[in-house]
Design a protein that fits this description.
It is built from 14 helices and no strands. By secondary structure, the protein is mostly helical. Among the domains are: 105 residues, no CATH class; 114 residues, no CATH class. α4 crosses α7, α7 runs parallel beside α14 and α9 packs across α10. The longest helix is centred in the middle third of the chain and has 45 residues.
């Protein structure tokens, strides 16, 4: 039986290999192949230490297979983001364990993350544009997108489950539950959608304003911007003369200079401005609705005690699946994460049910 550390290395090897197979840019694909080979070496070392046969060693877990399926259906950018998040969480866990046990921190604890960026920085065949493309893919999608999808469904399920149980407690599962559940679903989904729209639009407007100011500075004081850009490169360790030459070459093309200054000085990724606020709002509305409809659905076909029990069972199943899905980017045990989510959801619903029952008795 493989231990957790060994399985993590195996999954990383498998996923980096899949990333390599599905990457069109040959230089970036080569990066993933190198990472897969490194992770294979780690896995074989773990296996030998644990006296485990290295024959047919790379057998991915359900988690790795699920991430690969997500990559096939949507985009392998999601897989890259989830993989990097896992690497970071493992590094942080090692650091925290050493701190708690007052062990020496050697700097090797974050090697898995450092190795990837070291390969990127030292690969001479990788152009600046390809490096930037890779960094953009890692930052813009991935684990965060999967996390947002799971948490969106969780918000809808937990909030509406609690609401439905509160009304059910007050009315003994009467017809008012269905009306309240649908109202809660629509109110919550619309609120989430509006909040997402405002968040995306306000960020875009802020960035657009900063970019406009940067263009004004570029037009009114190009010499100052040239010096500023040269200083940025010097701060990265590039020699002064080379930094000045690079800045001068970039400043010869105003649009290129603006693009570089926006990225280097303001830290703004222009690709992030291309996202649609409406699309983000609809995405949020859809995810919340998926979760929120689960506790309401039984009341479409039945009422009373049977509807309440069916709603609880359906919601508990949904909570377990959400908890299991969370392990895609935490790497925790499925059963632990799933039942923890069920426990929290049932406690919240139990509290509102009890309050609803007390209010119902008082009204009667």
């Amino acid at each position: 039986m493989k231990n957790k550390s060994l399985q993590t290395e195996i999954d990383a090897c498998y996923l980096y290999r899949k990333l390599a197979e599905n990457e069109k840019e040959e230089s970036i694909s080569n990066i993933f192949r190198k990472m897969s080979e490194i992770e294979l070496g780690h896995a074989e070392a773990f296996a030998k230490r644990e006296n485990i046969s290295t024959e047919n060693l790379i057998i991915p877990s359900w988690r790795a297979k699920t991430l690969n399926l997500i990559g096939k259906i949507f985009s392998y950018d999601y897989v890259l983001g989830a993989l990097m998040d896992t690497e970071k969480s493992l590094s942080n866990a090692i650091l925290n364990t050493k701190k708690n046990n007052k062990l020496e921190i050697t700097g090797s604890e974050t090697n898995h993350v450092k190795i990837l960026w070291s390969i990127l920085d030292n690969d001479k065949t990788l152009s600046v544009d390809q490096h930037a493309k890779f960094e953009t893919k890692h930052r813009s999608v991935g684990g965060n997108a999967i996390r947002a999808a799971v948490l969106g469904g969780n918000d809808g399920l937990v909030s509406n489950f609690s609401l439905v149980m509160g009304i059910a407690g007050a009315t003994a599962g009467g017809q008012g539950v269905l009306l309240a559940g649908i109202a809660g679903l629509l109110a919550g989904a619309l609120s989430m959608a509006l909040g997402e729209w405002i968040s995306v639009r306000s960020s875009q407007e802020l960035y657009e304003n900063q970019m406009a100011i940067e263009m004004d500075e570029l037009e009114t004081n190009p010499e100052g911007e040239l010096k500023e850009l040269a200083l940025i490169y010097m701060a990265k360790g590039i020699p002064e003369e080379q930094s000045h030459n690079m800045a001068t070459e970039i400043m010869s093309d105003k649009s290129k200079a603006h693009e570089v200054l926006v990225k280097e000085e303001l830290g703004i990724n222009a690709d992030e401005l291309k996202g649609s606020a409406i699309e983000a709002a609809l995405y949020s509305f859809f995810l919340f609705t998926i979760g929120a409809i689960i506790p309401v659905a039984p009341f479409l076909f039945m009422s009373g005690f049977h509807a309440i029990i069916t709603s609880v069972i359906a919601s508990a199943a949904g909570l377990f699946l959400i908890g299991a899905a969370i392990t895609l980017f935490t790497g925790k045990n499925v059963w632990y994460s799933g039942f923890r989510q069920v426990l929290f959801g049932l406690v919240a619903a139990g509290i509102t049910f009890g309050i609803g029952e007390l209010i119902g008795v008082a009204i009667k």
